[in-house]
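User: Hi! I have a protein structure encoded as tokens and I'd like to know what sequence might fold into it. I'm fairly new to this, so please keep things simple.
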């Protein structure tokens, strides 16, 4: 059964962000519970529960018959010095992906770079320590591996799992851990109902692209993707098909499958199909495919968007440079929300709900779509 993040955790995150963003100084009093409830459109009971979590986190101090006071860093209880003795007081969060850290710090255009940076910034602002680990090649279905990457001193884990994990065995390992594990940018079937996760709403993102193309007069659309073995590729294709059905135009669409950086022969075949099937716009599942298709078209004397329109997904730097209409990966928002959820889970360890959040990508309109 899917469940949304409880209101007390949502409100806790909102109040914490409010304290930071409004520049509230240590020693200042928070507004009354009634005012906070009105500001965040929630109940006073929810506000009271959220303030309890903030007090456990060391951000505020509650006193009888007085409004909560914001603590200074020096007033927050100090963490223990060793991981072995740390427990939750050490507030150590692990960030695990399949990408070497050298690639993370070298690539400002990489969406994963932005996710990691945003999550770590949010965690460290609240006094957490963070550690990065490359889990490429590690068997995430093995108990010995988890004893190594999830030692007793760690308070929580944010993880981008690799594609080769077996869903059932991997998810079982996650649910056996003593610390909360939040998956991001997931590729794992079943994680929606069996693991805490923050991800893009790929279907709604593609739907917004298709509806935008329809608003520009396009009716015959093509969908260009890699293989659909990964969950997110299937979600993007499903979003395309469903929206075309909803718009009663599924009989005027087609689907192309190719490699991310395809060569001349693949480009010739796709362009021939576009011409023969009178496709006026191609929805690419990732920006790299959109860029490859644009390059192939231009090499054959075609112009984008005059001859046909192209859209992408991810908003990478190269797509910005080429004026591709695309969808933002919302990487900073993903990182911030992952941090908020793992902090909420640490603060409320008795919760037995599965926290699932999907962020809708933002349509970035540029100059690769014509109005017809």
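Assistant: Happy to help. Inverse folding works backwards from shape to sequence: for each of the 372 positions I chose a residue that suits the local structure. Here it is:
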């Amino acid at each position: 059964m899917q469940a949304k993040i409880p209101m007390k955790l949502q409100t806790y995150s909102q109040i914490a962000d409010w304290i930071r963003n409004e520049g509230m100084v240590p020693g200042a009093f928070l507004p009354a519970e009634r005012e906070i409830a009105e500001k965040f459109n929630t109940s006073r009971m929810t506000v009271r529960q959220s303030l309890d979590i903030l007090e456990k986190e060391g951000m505020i101090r509650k006193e009888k018959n007085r409004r909560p006071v914001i603590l200074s860093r020096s007033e927050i209880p100090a963490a223990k010095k060793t991981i072995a003795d740390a427990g939750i007081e050490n507030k150590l969060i692990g960030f695990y992906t399949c990408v070497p850290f050298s690639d993370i710090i070298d690539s400002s255009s990489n969406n994963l770079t932005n996710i990691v940076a945003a999550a770590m910034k949010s965690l460290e602002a609240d006094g957490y320590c963070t550690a990065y680990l490359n889990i490429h090649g590690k068997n995430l279905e093995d108990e010995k591996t988890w004893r190594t990457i999830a030692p007793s001193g760690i308070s929580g884990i944010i993880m981008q799992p690799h594609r080769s994990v077996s869903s059932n065995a991997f998810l079982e390992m996650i649910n056996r851990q003593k610390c909360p594990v939040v998956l991001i940018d997931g590729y794992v079937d079943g994680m929606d109902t069996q693991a805490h996760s923050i991800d893009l709403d790929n279907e709604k993102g593609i739907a917004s692209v298709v509806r935008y193309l329809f608003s520009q007069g396009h009716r015959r659309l093509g969908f260009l993707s890699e293989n659909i073995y990964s969950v997110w590729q299937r979600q993007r294709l499903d979003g395309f098909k469903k929206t075309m059905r909803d718009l009663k135009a599924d009989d005027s669409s087609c689907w192309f499958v190719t490699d991310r950086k395809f060569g001349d022969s693949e480009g010739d075949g796709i362009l021939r199909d576009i011409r023969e099937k009178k496709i006026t716009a191609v929805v690419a599942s990732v920006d790299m495919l959109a860029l490859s298709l644009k390059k192939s078209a231009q090499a054959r004397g075609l112009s984008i968007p005059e001859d046909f329109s192209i859209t992408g997904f991810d908003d990478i730097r190269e797509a910005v440079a080429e004026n591709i209409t695309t969808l933002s990966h919302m990487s900073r928002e993903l990182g911030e929300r992952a941090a908020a959820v793992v902090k909420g889970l640490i603060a409320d360890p008795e919760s037995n709900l599965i926290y699932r959040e999907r962020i809708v990508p933002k349509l970035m309109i540029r100059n690769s779509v014509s109005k017809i």
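A useful reference point when you look it over: Residues 73-89 have pLDDT under 50 and may be disordered. Feel free to ask if any position seems puzzling.
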